[in-house]
Amino acid sequence: MTAVIQIEGLRKTFRTLRGGARVALNGFDMTVEAGQVHGFLGPNGSGKTTTLRTLLGLVRADDGRMSILGQPAPEALPLIAPRVGAIVESPAFFGNFTGRRTLRLLARAGGVPEERVDAVLTQVGLRDRGDERVKAYSLGMKQRLAVASALLKQPELLILDEPANGLDPAGIREMRDLMRELSAAGITVLVSSHILAEIQLICDHVTIISRGQRVATGPVTAVLSGFDKGEYRVRVADLDRAADVLTNAGLPVTKHEEHLVVADVGDSAWIAEQLGQRGMWVSELTPLTPTSKASSSS
Ligand SMILES: Nc1ncnc2c1ncn2[C@@H]1O[C@H](COP(=O)(O)OP(=O)(O)OP(=O)(O)O)[C@@H](O)[C@H]1O
């Protein structure tokens, strides 16, 4: 399969105003294959937005390799930009404009034929509401209008930062249906979120980031619902303290020399969150398959 997005060893440290350094990405890897609705899951501040901004050339990486649609990024971005739709900063629409007028202006500015406006309104389920003012839209409709704006140029890849943020369950389901339809139409989608349930509902694959590093990746069902008996290999610097926290939370924990095996895990992101909140950063969180179990018995 062809990787639509490939990221290897991405590093970014921000300088703070007081002359300090904040490591946002610490050797991050991610692969998104063609046709996936790929979730990018991690707690607030784990590096999701920095990754997306770096990928789109808005932030300069310190190190690492990236490619989009087989072309090196950010170098080839001018070439591939017409094939990529992205919403990384939530767009501010004029409330007094209708959805249709908003898209018409964007189409004109982007050199896109105006016929696309009706097509994308239909695609995101706003065709009947296109002549209402944006200020009368619900949050979910505004989010879908944002997706419509990114679809104007018929991208092959759509990158959405927190598209379900603030939506109620019905809005999240609509977003899921929309993502599935886009995927069925051959568009690869990358969706970031800090909420596990959103990713579980919307995506088929997931990459989990914690403190600037990938801690798990794979099909949503395997990674988020656990695999086999819900056993995970967890690597963290302070194994004793992590084992205490997870045991106190009621999970069966087995200690190994360099990692823990935690069973009955229904929600692996919860582990990263619980340990992260206590200042313990997970460097690996892998569902144990029959093959990986063998290497875990040391
Ligand atoms: N321009 C910046 N200057 C300094 N630090 C930054 C900057 N941008 C991000 N950071 C820091 O980098 C880390 C990662 O932030 P990032 O916004 O990528 O996380 P995130 O996973 O997208 O979180 P959220 O869900 O809250 O947006 C955080 O510690 C953040 O404070």
Walk me through what this model shows:
Keywords: ATP-binding, Nucleotide-binding, Transport. This is ABC transporter ATP-binding protein. InterPro entries: AAA+_ATPase, ABC_transporter-like_ATP-bd, ABC_transporter-like_CS, P-loop_NTPase. Belongs to the ABC transporter superfamily. With 298 residues, the protein is of the alpha/beta class. The protein folds into 2 domains: 3-225, P-loop containing nucleotide triphosphate hydrolases (Rossmann fold); 229-296, Alpha-Beta Plaits (2-Layer Sandwich). 34% of the residues lie in helices and 28% in strands. The chain is built from 11 helices and 14 strands. It has helices at residues 48-55, 77-80, 99-109, 115-123, 139-151, 169-184, 196-202, 220-224, 239-248, 268-277, 290-296; strands spanning 3-15, 21-33, 37-41, 63-68, 71-73, 84-87, 157-161, 188-193, 205-210, 213-219, 232-235, 253-255, 260-262, 284-287. The strands form 3 sheets. The chain has a 6-stranded mixed beta sheet, with helices on both faces. The chain has a 4-stranded antiparallel beta sheet with strand order 2-1-4-5, covered by helices on one side. Helix 3 crosses helix 4, helix 4 packs across helix 5 and helix 5 (139-151) packs parallel to helix 6. Adenosine-5'-triphosphate binds next to strand 2 and helix 1.
